[in-house]
Write a structure and sequence with these properties.
By secondary structure, the protein is α/β, with parallel strands linked by helices. The protein contains eleven helices and ten strands. The chain has a seven-stranded mixed sheet with strand order 1-9-8-2-5-3-4. A three-stranded antiparallel sheet has the order 7-6-10, sandwiched between helices.
Length: 315
């Protein structure tokens, strides 16, 4: 696990101390208060007062759901902000929640079957900013296998220190994306379960592929696929269902067995199709505040996808 950075100015250290204090206060509150009282207050602040990234959210919803009425999109918008307020509470509460509480809040339905299929070999959990993804940091509680999670460093040092501390609390090993290739090369036979979130918008210079996603030409990271193919890692999409406030059930579906010969971009396409199905079924659970479609689509990419090609590699 990477050590928490001690660098940064006084402001960073003070900010980190305040965040830790906030986490302790929230962690001391009962769950009923968090989700029945604090969550609605946070929703009001985010949505009604601050309007957190409201323009981005509305723009994304209009792109994906052009056939819905303005009021239908507003209902999704309000539901999203209510869910976001609960996710933020989940993230803070992860600093103090007990293992028993974690197992109640996240139930993995096909755990025994999945453990049998992955026993003794490395595999990737293909995740997304859907549901309460931070809960997956507690996955070491569900398995005897070594676990790791890829992450991208944050610009805010205080927030990064908090993220590292909360995500590693139950034994998850955190690996920076820029170090992931070296980590996998060194631990390819250790049977690591590796969590990766790849639904963000890639930088132009990063390895990526164009897919049709939610009705839009969309760029996806291909790092998960490249590592899976190179090191023979199984890939499992983690389906997630919200069962109540702060409570989820999930199950793993294999989308790549680690040995199948496939076309470039196919594993990423399989991931995207399953994520799209989840989003269309419960759109409020996805992170609409990301600027997912901020890059211009090259004309050639648009034409090739329109002509039936499912994956288009960068020009």
């Amino acid at each position: 696990m990477p050590k928490e950075s001690t660098k940064g100015g006084l402001g960073s250290r003070v900010g980190y101390g305040m965040l830790i204090a906030l986490c302790r206060v929230v962690g001391a509150l009962p769950a009923w208060f968090l989700y029945r009282c604090l969550s609605p207050a946070l929703y009001f602040l985010l949505y009604k007062v601050v309007g957190y990234r409201k323009k981005v959210v509305r723009g994304n919803l209009a792109l994906v759901f052009p056939d819905k009425t303005a009021e239908e999109r507003r209902r999704i918008e309000r539901s999203f902000y209510r869910h976001l307020s609960e996710v933020m509470i989940d993230m803070v509460d992860l600093m103090s929640i007990t293992p028993q509480q974690v197992r109640r809040r996240l139930v993995i339905e096909n755990r025994a079957e999945h453990d049998a299929r992955t026993a003794g070999r490395g595999w990737i959990a293909a995740l997304a900013h859907y549901g309460s993804w931070e809960l997956f940091a507690a996955y070491p509680l569900y398995t005897d296998a070594p676990t790791a999670s890829a992450y991208r460093p944050l610009h805010n040092r205080a927030m990064e220190r908090l993220m590292l501390r909360s995500r590693s609390r139950f034994g998850m090993r955190l690996v920076r994306m820029q170090d992931l290739a070296r980590f996998l090369a060194s631990h390819r036979t250790d049977g690591y379960a590796l969590g990766m979130i790849i639904d963000q918008s890639p930088q132009v210079r990063s390895s990526n592929v164009w897919l049709e996603f939610l009705g839009r030409p969309t760029r996806f990271f291909t790092s998960m696929e490249r590592f899976a193919v190179k090191y023979g890692l199984q890939v499992y999409f983690f389906h997630l269902r919200k069962t109540a406030r702060g409570q989820y059930s999930g199950w793993f579906e294999m989308i790549y067995d680690g040995v199948e010969e496939i076309a470039e971009g196919e594993v990423t396409l399989r991931y995207a199709r399953r994520l799209e199905q989840q989003i269309r079924e419960r759109p409020q659970l996805w992170m609409w505040s990301h600027r997912r479609w901020k890059h211009a689509v090259p004309d050639e990419v648009r034409e090739r996808l329109a002509n039936g090609e499912q994956t288009v590699m960068p020009m």
